[in-house]
Design brief:
By secondary structure, this protein is mainly α. It contains ten helices and no strands. The protein is globular and about 50 Å long. The N and C termini lie far apart (65 Å).
Length: 214
């Protein structure tokens, strides 16, 4: 079974269709987060270690697709004028991510888009929010470009490292590459959670001082 999967994967990776798939998955992931674009880019990076597909091609095509997808999400947010975000049910993960996106955008500006690339669900929440608040398109495109290039490089190189570590067994390389990507995501989430808790304490402490700790 694994040999059959490996054979089919090798056929796809050696075909020019892989570039079409990379672009399409990365673009769709911009406004439909259920698409596993990161997994596909990491996998392509693993096989790039064997020569096909080309590593530079994986990076460029994935980044281009991500850039387009971000602009589609931005346009949806701009067209809806915030109505899509306002309809999110309070208490849900999407609603919490929307609140985070609005707060962080106000604090850090367009750089939040680069950070959101590595937070599950963060990318779509941020791009929709930036569109809904009418964030300047020129600035958005600049930060979307930075985010897309960094993401394409990161995913492809993580996969490439896995492919080099297991040149004789690409499937193990895929597992290692995806494992590395998940580890980075977990670390980012832990850091973000820690910073959020610290910020919450910083907001509460002045109130406690004013009220005498009551």
């Amino acid at each position: 079974m694994s040999e059959a999967i490996l054979h089919l994967t090798e056929q796809l990776m050696s075909s020019w269709w892989i570039y079409v798939a990379l672009w399409g998955f990365a673009a769709l992931d911009g406004f439909f987060p259920a698409i596993p674009s990161e997994t596909l880019v990491v996998t392509a990076g693993v096989f790039a270690a064997t020569g096909e597909p080309k590593l530079w091609g994986v990076v460029v095509v994935a980044a281009a697709g991500a850039f387009v997808g971000d602009h589609v999400s931005y346009a949806l947010g701009r067209g809806a004028g915030g109505r899509l975000l306002d309809r999110l049910q309070p208490g849900t993960k999407r609603h919490a991510m929307s609140l985070w996106a609005r707060r962080t955008l106000a604090e850090r500006g367009g750089l939040v888009l680069v950070v959101a690339r590595y937070i599950p669900g963060g990318r779509t929440a941020v791009t929709l929010t930036m569109g809904s608040v009418r964030y300047p398109l020129r600035k958005f495109s600049f930060f979307a470009g930075l985010a897309a290039i960094s993401w394409g490089l990161y995913c492809a190189l993580v996969g490439y490292i896995g492919g080099k570590a297991f040149e004789d067994n690409p499937l193990k390389g895929v597992v290692l590459g995806i494992g590395l990507a998940l580890t980075v995501t977990v670390i980012v989430e832990i850091v973000r959670h820690h910073l959020r808790k610290r910020q919450a304490r910083a907001e509460v402490e002045p109130v406690l001082v004013e009220t005498g700790g009551k």
